[in-house]
Design a protein that fits this description.
- The protein is α+β, with helices and mostly antiparallel strands and about 500 residues long.
- Helices cover about 40% and strands about 15% of the residues.
- It is built from 17 helices and 13 strands.
- The strands form 3 sheets. It has an 8-stranded mixed β-sheet, with helices on both faces. Strands 1-3-2 form a 3-stranded mixed β-sheet.
- It is globular and about 60 Å long.
Length: about 500
């Protein structure tokens, strides 16, 4: 096949760069889609990141009304197989229970993708219903980390992160309810922004009030791609329960300037959880880099009851997920999840949460409120909090204790094992504040290690601005001379 770019050029070109080539007429949307499809063929057998490609959208990018005059102008794009529905396309959410499921309409965010000119060419892998930390069920697929395929890419945006890291395309849709954008971004060397509550709509199925912790976004290789994505796809659907945040200036412009000197709190001991010693060393090194860039950095931890916050977050997941499963059972005329179709821990979550009382839910919401208020007060004194993106080394494929295939009889014990490794990202999900994973460090295994910045509500632009400042400090690319072992250029 004749490519419009060499593979080196392909992976050096981010989504904004592709959009510029499209606007100049130097490449065509169908040519980019075809090369993305060939990139998938080159690497996907080794990493199982892409579940399905949409041949009609590859041949004809205007399929389903994608706007070629939009800001992205036909850049190829993968949608995670969980979250916004794509009309008529399979959305199976990593589960045998939903095989054959096809949404009857585009969600609001899917419409935003199309208006922006993102050509949805396929869907990426996710663990069953996005619940656990790795897309790893041999009966469905096992998604692997392209840096070293013996390891998980984490999740739940596993396929999105692995596909972007391996060079299939520069930008992919992702979702985050406790770290599912940021954690796999951190283990795959990517930018992963979890936006504030009230930036991306989750209509029509949920609202920010009913969804609580769930938000949408992307993973990318460059800060400007993520900034441009937010600019183009943010916004409220009709009938939202709350006002949506706006920015006085497009983030794509804001990130061209360095931020003013900031007060940054460095932290890794969050209640009962703390980082691996190597991660602490990398955190300290990152803190020194930020000091060299003119910021004030000190060891400070927010005055938050972390144990109460983790308990409330766990209750939220269990109660929300139990009702989600209940709706699926009702549609299928079933009274309980069939064990041959639903993974064991997900059945236990349904059992634990289906009869949760309003009183229990009220107590959960009370902790959400008090935690958010305390964190808000902390941000009156500190601009940012810096931690590692996760607190323990990335597991090898097959470590079932983190999977919903686990035989752990106690679902609460299973959740608290997750919190032990994913200690830092859930707070932003609980409070609706933004967080970003930036590829600034390396694990002892050689896998990437993200560093995680959090800030106050609606301050997403500051996170992107600091990320862009760091990207410039790295010479314009966080991994200029390093590539994963599975990569389209190899």
């Amino acid at each position: 096949m004749t490519h419009v770019m060499s593979w080196d050029e392909w992976t050096a070109c981010d989504a904004v760069g592709m959009s510029e080539l499209l606007k100049k007429g130097e490449v065509l949307p169908a040519e980019l889609a075809a090369q993305a499809a060939e990139a998938t063929a080159r690497v996907n057998p080794q990493i199982s990141a892409v579940v399905e490609l949409f041949d009609d959208a590859i041949r004809e990018p205007t399929t389903d009304g994608t706007n070629m005059a939009g800001p992205f102008g036909g850049v190829p794009f993968l949608v995670k197989d969980l979250g916004p529905g794509v009309k008529g396309r399979l959305q199976e959410q990593g589960s045998k229970f939903l095989q054959g499921n096809r949404p009857g309409e585009d969600s609001f965010l899917t419409q935003q993708f199309r208006k922006a000119g993102l050509n949805i060419i396929g869907r990426s892998a996710t663990p069953e219903f996005g619940v656990c930390s790795s897309a790893e069920n041999p009966e469905v697929y096992v998604t692997r980390n392209p840096w070293n395929t013996a390891y998980t890419p984490f999740g739940s945006s596993a396929g999105a992160s692995a596909s972007v890291a391996a060079g299939i395309l520069p930008l992919a849709h992702a979702t985050d309810g406790g770290g599912s954008i940021r954690i796999p971004a951190g283990a795959n060397g990517l930018i992963g922004l979890k936006s504030s509550r009230g930036v991306f709509s989750i209509a029509p199925a949920l609202s920010d009030i009913t969804g609580y912790v769930s938000t949408q976004g992307c993973v990318s290789r460059t800060v400007r791609d993520t900034a441009f994505f937010v600019d183009c796809c943010r916004g409220a659907a009709p009938g939202e329960f709350m006002p949506y945040w706006n920015s006085d200036e497009p983030y794509a412009e804001l990130i061209k300037r360095d931020p003013a000197p900031l007060r940054i709190a460095l932290s890794h001991q969050w209640g009962p959880y703390q980082s691996d010693s190597h991660f602490v060393s990398e955190l300290e090194r990152t803190g020194r880099l930020l000091e060299e860039l003119g910021h004030q950095v000190e060891w400070v931890t927010p005055d938050i009851d972390f144990e109460a916050a983790f308990a409330a977050q766990t209750a939220c997941y269990i109660s929300n997920f139990a009702q989600f499963i209940a709706r699926l059972l009702e549609k299928k005329g079933l009274t309980r999840p069939p064990p041959e179709w639903v993974e064991p821990i997900n059945i236990k979550i349904w059992q634990k949460g289906i009869d949760m009382s309003y009183s229990e839910r009220w107590k959960m919401q009370e902790v959400f409120n008090t935690t958010s208020r305390r964190l808000g007060n902390f941000y009156q004194q500190w601009d940012l909090i810096l931690t590692p993106t996760f607190s323990r080394p990335t597991p090898l494929i097959g470590e079932t204790r983190y999977l919903t295939l686990s035989d752990n009889p106690d679902v609460l014990s299973w959740f608290y094992q997750l919190w032990d490794i994913f200690s830092y990202t859930p707070l932003a999900s609980l409070t609706g504040t933004p967080g970003i994973s930036i590829p600034l460090a390396t694990q002892q295994s050689g896998l990437p290690l993200g560093m995680h910045l959090q800030t106050r509500q609606a301050n997403d632009g500051l996170l992107l601005q600091v990320a862009a400042q760091l990207e410039r400090a790295f010479g314009g690319s966080f991994y200029k001379n390093t590539r994963p072992s599975v990569h389209v250029t190899r």
